[in-house]
Amino acid sequence: MTESRITTKDLDWWLDFAATCQWTFAKTYAQTAPHDYVVQWRTPGVTHDDIVRAARVICTFGTPGKYYSLTKIYLVSPDGRMRWWTEDRNFTDATLVNRATTELSYGIQNAPSTVSGIDSAYDEVATVWDIEHPIAEGEADHVKHLLESVRGKYPPHVLDIGCGTGRVLDLGLTSPDRHAAIDSSRAMLNVLVRKHPKVAAVYPADIRKLLGEGTFTQGQFDWVVLDGGVELDGAQRAQVAQIARLAVITVNGGEWAVNRTSEEAGPRA
User: Fold this and answer.
1) Together in a domain, 41 and 84
2) What is the domain extent for residue 43?
């Protein structure tokens, strides 16, 4: 199996490997969505490990795109002519890689951008993050109980700072259409969008830059969930508190701390 980290060496491997593969034209989609594919074992020289490695490369270095109502992660070739994608739910379930020219598009291309322009150490481990940090038995119920005092009738509007691969959504703390995700890691955001394509908003940026630009308004979100690894000074923390109508929730590893910003608690549509 491939190593757990995905780096530019893996990207270079895929670009070279893809150029040598024998791609098969998908006759079933000849008219509706013409593309080629390689499939493990049937395509000469392509193993399951190759496909899994390619799927992780695509998710790490790609960006979201639309196929009608579906959101997928596509990797575009350096010359901009080709794009690759997979159809798997889990990376280890991948059995094939698809290829098409970038001139072809289907439906409105309104997928969120995940490109931050920031090199993040988390990019290399994004595609194994959920495997190495699984949700523990009973964790979702525990966290929901902890947050009950700041929860209204409706799912909260959440600004998730340092969202990673979307643990707030994985735990069922809110619905994707009420979740705004901030992270400087492109690959982490790709994994989040891959799992939760209906996420309301994605901000591929450093939160300090967004705060400096005045991106968010006072009381805009019910909760602000803040990853403990995000470094903020006192003034920035005060800004974050103003954005949260009900609470700032700080997460350090598996420890969740709730700091109410208002005594108000009740339904909000």
Assistant:
1) yes
2) 8-101
pLDDT confidence of 1, banded at 50, 70, 90? very low
* Chain segment 190-228, per-residue pLDDT in tens: 999 999 999 999 999 999 999 999 999 999 999 999 999
Strands 158-161 and 221-227 turn out to be parallel
* pTM beyond 0.90: yes
- Cα–Cα distance, 38 to 40 (Å, whole number): 7
Tell whether 38 is covered by a domain. yes
The answer on 164 and 57 residing in a single domain is: no
- H-helix segments, 108-162: 126-132, 139-146
Crossing angle (nearest 10°) for helices 8-20 and 48-61: 120
Tally of domains in the chain: 2
pLDDT more than 70, % of the chain: 96
Domain check: are 17 and 87 in the same one? yes
Q: Calculate ∠ Cα 47-114-111, nearest 5°.
A: 90
* 137 & 51 share domain: no
For 16-30, give one letter per residue: b (16+ CB within 10 A) or e.
ebbeebeeeebeeee
DSSP 212-228: HTT-S-TT-EEEEEEET
